[in-house]
Amino acid sequence: MEKQIASTNLHQPEEVNLDYSLAGYDYQLPPELIAQNPVFPRDSSRLLVVNSPTTGQGTAPLHQIFRDLPDLLRAGDLLIINDTKVIPARLYGRKSTGAEIEVLLLEERKYNCWLALVKPGKRFKIGTKIVFPPRELGINPTDTQPLTATVLETDKATGGRLLEFDVPEGKPLLEVLDQFGEIPLPPYITTSTAADEQYQTVYAQQPGAIAAPTAGLHFTPELLAQLGDRGINQAFITLHVGIGTFRPVEIENVTNHQMHEEWISVPPATVEKIRATKAAGGRVIAVGTTAVRALEGAAKSGDLQPFGGKTDLFIYPGYEWRVVDGLITNFHLPRSSLMMLVSALISRERLINIYQEAIAAQYRFYSFGDAMLILPEAKGLPS
């Protein structure tokens, strides 16, 4: 475990544990390695495999292709998959003054009242009226009523606003959102030509996310069928990806970071599959950090139980694992809570070394990038 010396106000050296320091999760990524578009087919992305307790600290990772996954897992293993679906959460509109504004919906707080990030924020005072015209995607604007919203209050936790929508014909906002909003790609994707469906997993079912669970973007229906044929089973959870996942950690002592809550559902059928898998000696492999947070959030009391509600679970080194044995994940932004979660599985020092190897090998990073498989035998600190 690396440590560095920091100076105090008394000019006396003090040891800083980099596992709990924001600076310990920094790395430099060449901009050209930020993937702007997904590969086709989805399962032709590269897969870096962490298969030993010494991978990243004495042993090099394996370099595979994602479609090799059936050969890397075992019959009896269980993949836990997040079936959330990204909604067209980015809206463009105008105030009654004509000023242009941008809204990113976060979550529905009550019927047709949504918490949203807004831009520019100073123009969103309480009582402000906003009109959102329909997007021109084969919809005749003369046949579609505009969508309107009123600013009800400011949300201190996010800096956002609570917007009450007046939806045509009194419908739920989600029913008409396709006519007005667009799928929100992350800000580091600036030149993408990807279609909306390429930012959805092939098994997306439950609308509510504002960002994709990107580890799942590599799966194809054919690969899922092949995994099933090999006796590698699948079970679903839902975590609606929200601000808790993508908002950066900004506190130098990461143990003081407070995650925003995100909605999860871990159904009874999934809990039963997990219990049966472990009883038979199988391993639970989470597809993405969202699946990790859902499973471990549902086991927060110490024992995994069916759960529906919100979690603010923040996982970082020192975390005591209750459910997850292995992980499929993408490569994450520096200083992010997602890097801290993965570090809790294999150690921060190993993860940083593995990221440096991935950069040297020209892996593609972030949402549309390549993937990493952390096998259960690689879990933990090097001996």
From TrEMBL:
Transfers and isomerizes the ribose moiety from AdoMet to the 7-aminomethyl group of 7-deazaguanine (preQ1-tRNA) to give epoxyqueuosine (oQ-tRNA). The gene is queA. This is S-adenosylmethionine:tRNA ribosyltransferase-isomerase. Its main location: cytoplasm. The keyword Nucleotide-binding does not apply. GO terms for molecular function: S-adenosylmethionine:tRNA ribosyltransferase-isomerase activity. It is found in: Cytoplasm. Belongs to the QueA family. Its EC number is 2.4.99.17. Keywords: Cytoplasm, Glycosyltransferase, Queuosine biosynthesis, S-adenosyl-L-methionine, Transferase. It catalyses: 7-aminomethyl-7-carbaguanosine(34) in tRNA + S-adenosyl-L-methionine = epoxyqueuosine(34) in tRNA + adenine + L-methionine + 2 H(+). Pathway: tRNA modification; tRNA-queuosine biosynthesis. Monomer. HAMAP family: QueA. InterPro entries: QueA (IPR003699), QueA_dom1 (IPR042118), QueA_dom2 (IPR042119), QueA_sf (IPR036100).
